Amino acid sequence: MKNKINQALIPQINKLPSKKPSNRLESLKNGAKPEFKELFNKHVDEVQEKEITVSKHAAKRLEERNLKIDGDEYLKLKQAMQKLQNKGGRESLVVTNNAAYIVDVNNSKVVTAIDKEKMNENIFTNIDSTVFMM
Description:
The chain has five helices and seven strands; from the N terminus they run E-E-H-H-E-H-H-E-E-E-H-E. The chain is elongated, with a radius of gyration of 29 Å. It has two domains: 21-50; 51-133, no CATH class. By secondary structure, the protein is α/β, with parallel strands linked by helices. It has helices at residues 23-29, 35-49, 56-64, 71-87, 116-119; strands spanning 3-5, 8-10, 53-54, 91-96, 99-104, 109-115, 129-133.
């Protein structure tokens, strides 16, 4: 039955909604992780786990220029790629004490390499960022 007050119909409310927590809130209280945190952690793990690969072109340049990617150089490249990934770099120049590398950040791939002596003679094009890892 509806009551009339000043010609307006007011519905009768028998039961007010409870202030019960939603299932989502309950699941969070019970230890479930929020979706954003799960996705973020998965992305961070993927970035950290990616191994650096060397393109055929880069392998040829490394051999021609007698360049070696030893453990120290590899770590510098890996750290550089992580920094570049965090800053949104895609095609980037990484400069170390030994050489300069053009890298495809998204694919963790060395695209080409230039030895230290020839760095001054080169023009680097189609890059969006540079990092120095000396």
